[in-house]
Amino acid sequence: MTKEELLAKYKEWELKTSAYKMALAIIGIDKQTVAPEGGAPYRDKRTAVLAGELFSLQMDPENIEVLRELMKMDLDGDTAKAVKMNYDEIMKTVAVPKDEFVAYQNLTNEAYGAWLDAKNRSDYAAFEPYLEKLIEGTRKMYEYRDSDLSLYDRMLDDYEPGMTQEKYDVFFDRLKERIVPLIRRVTEAQKIDTSFLHRNYPVEEQKKFMDELLQYLRFDPYWGYLNETEHPFTSGTCENDCRTTTKYLPDNVASAILSTVHEVGHATYGHQTAPEYDGTILAEAISMGMHESQSRLCENYLGRSKPFWEANYPRLQKHFPEQLGDVSLDAFVAAINAAEPSLIRTEADELTYPLHILVRYEIEKGLFNGTISTKGLDQTWNEMYAKYLGVTVPDARSGILQDVHWAGGSFGYFPTYALGSAFSAQFMHAMRKDLDVDECLRNGQYDVLMGWLKEHIHKYGARYNADEVMRLATGEPFNPDYYLDYLEDKYTKLYNL
Amino acid sequence: MTKEELLAKYKEWELKTSAYKMALAIIGIDKQTVAPEGGAPYRDKRTAVLAGELFSLQMDPENIEVLRELMKMDLDGDTAKAVKMNYDEIMKTVAVPKDEFVAYQNLTNEAYGAWLDAKNRSDYAAFEPYLEKLIEGTRKMYEYRDSDLSLYDRMLDDYEPGMTQEKYDVFFDRLKERIVPLIRRVTEAQKIDTSFLHRNYPVEEQKKFMDELLQYLRFDPYWGYLNETEHPFTSGTCENDCRTTTKYLPDNVASAILSTVHEVGHATYGHQTAPEYDGTILAEAISMGMHESQSRLCENYLGRSKPFWEANYPRLQKHFPEQLGDVSLDAFVAAINAAEPSLIRTEADELTYPLHILVRYEIEKGLFNGTISTKGLDQTWNEMYAKYLGVTVPDARSGILQDVHWAGGSFGYFPTYALGSAFSAQFMHAMRKDLDVDECLRNGQYDVLMGWLKEHIHKYGARYNADEVMRLATGEPFNPDYYLDYLEDKYTKLYNL
Question: What predicted TM-score, i.e. pTM, was given to this entire model?
Answer without folding.
Answer: 0.90
